[in-house]
Design a protein that fits this description.
- About 85% of the residues lie in helices and about 0% in strands.
- It has about 140 residues and is mainly α.
- The chain has one domain.
């Protein structure tokens, strides 16, 4: 009984989140995973070459003032929260706009309007992944 609850609880959470946030849920997971790669690659590069190799001046300043790990954490968590929050607001606004317009729209327009926040999050995740790949290339050179 208790074991069944422990096994089924993560599935219930996954189902509720994916039902509520739709594509944004998967975009957010991709962003978090790619941001994790970016943090690891940045950490490795900065430890190997120093903070001068970091191109992001805000992150470099945080790492110089607070240390590498706290600087990365303080920079990463708010950026992920802000990106997912903006994506959620854009999705909500897009769905609200579709529901309140009297304009007849195609299925593609409806999909784009109602999921534009997800596109934003996927785009940011792609850019983050490019940065992580660049860091890994620099580290293993």
């Amino acid at each position: 009984m208790v074991l069944d609850n422990l096994v089924n609880y993560p599935k219930k959470i996954h189902n509720k989140l994916s039902e509520k946030f739709d594509h944004l849920y998967y975009g957010s997971l991709a962003l978090i995973i790619f941001k994790g790669f970016d943090v690891v690659s940045t950490y490795l590069c900065v430890h190997k070459y120093g903070t001068d190799t970091e191109r992001n001046s805000i992150l470099r300043y945080c790492m110089d003032q607070l240390g590498i790990t706290p600087g990365l954490i303080i920079h990463t968590i708010p950026s992920v929260i802000a990106t997912v929050g903006i994506g959620h607001l854009a999705n909500t606004y897009g769905r609200h706009k579709i529901d309140n317009d009297d304009i007849k729209r195609s299925e593609l327009e409806i999909m784009v309007f109602s999921n534009r926040g997800s596109f934003i999050v996927y785009g940011v995740a792609a850019v983050v992944q490019i940065a992580a790949i660049s860091n890994f290339i620099e580290y293993f050179r």
